[in-house]
Specification:
7-stranded mixed β-sheet, 235 residues, single chain, 2 helices, mainly beta
Length: 235
């Protein structure tokens, strides 16, 4: 994850992401015509400039963000999303199977042509009061905070490419050169009202799309590692 001297232009065009370390999120073969087929490759990259985190997805389908947003707290159930999993505390146990303070998830989509962004924080220092439950007939989990953060996220797309920008402070991130955290980048695919597939660079245990707690759960031990490097450093 490069600490950039200049911010990328947030226009959905990824020319200014040259030299980024692109991670493969999904690779599949898509039928084309009666007999043809093409490789559909989705990749993601992340960068930091100033006080903001930037993320990019390329070749991710121009209609990816079709989402009914019927219940915003479970945005991950109702269609396509861009997805970031962040472990902001570099001192946390990298093999932790359960989230700790500093672990969060950011989902971004569009509902009725308007940006919708939801931040999930399982554990928040000083939290009191009720926790938000995610339940099913077979399991249940709860989180300290589930927040709408539409006004803090910027999003742009161009055809099948997407870019977003979010304040580091919202994610609890204070990146420095050579710092390493657990994190992941991915996306959700759907048909506009139901999520059909969950794809991530690192976490491949994501086949379940029919159990709310499983789809809400953060599993940091399955995330990859992000290393923050200076703009001219090699990843």
């Amino acid at each position: 994850v490069k600490l950039r001297a200049a911010a990328p232009v947030l226009d959905g065009k990824l020319d200014d992401w040259a030299g980024a370390d692109w991670a493969t999120i999904d690779r599949r073969t898509v039928t084309q015509g009666d007999w043809g087929a093409r490789l559909d490759l989705v990749q993601g990259a992340v960068a930091v400039h100033g006080d903001r985190l930037y993320a990019a997805w390329r070749n991710a389908d121009g209609n990816l963000l079709r989402n009914s947003g019927a219940t915003w707290q479970t945005l991950f159930k109702s269609g396509g999303c861009l997805d970031l999993m962040i472990g902001a505390d570099p001192q946390a146990n990298p093999d932790r199977p359960e989230p700790v303070r500093g672990d969060c998830r950011l989902l971004v989509s569009r509902v009725q042509d308007k940006l919708m962004a939801v931040l999930y924080r399982p554990l928040v220092a000083g939290h009191t009061g009720e926790r938000f439950p995610f339940t099913s007939p077979v399991s249940s989990i709860a989180m300290d905070e589930v927040l709408r953060v539409d006004d803090q996220v910027q999003l742009a797309n161009h055809e099948g490419d997407y870019e977003l920008s979010v304040p580091l402070a919202l994610l609890g991130l204070k990146p420095g050169a050579d710092q390493v955290i657990k994190a992941d980048i991915g996306l959700l695919r759907g048909n506009g009202f139901q999520t059909m597939q969950r794809c991530y660079w690192s976490n491949k245990a994501t086949s379940m799309t029919a159990d709310v707690p499983s789809e809400a759960r953060l599993s940091p031990n399955l995330w990859g590692r992000w290393r923050f490097v200076g703009g001219d450093a090699k990843p």
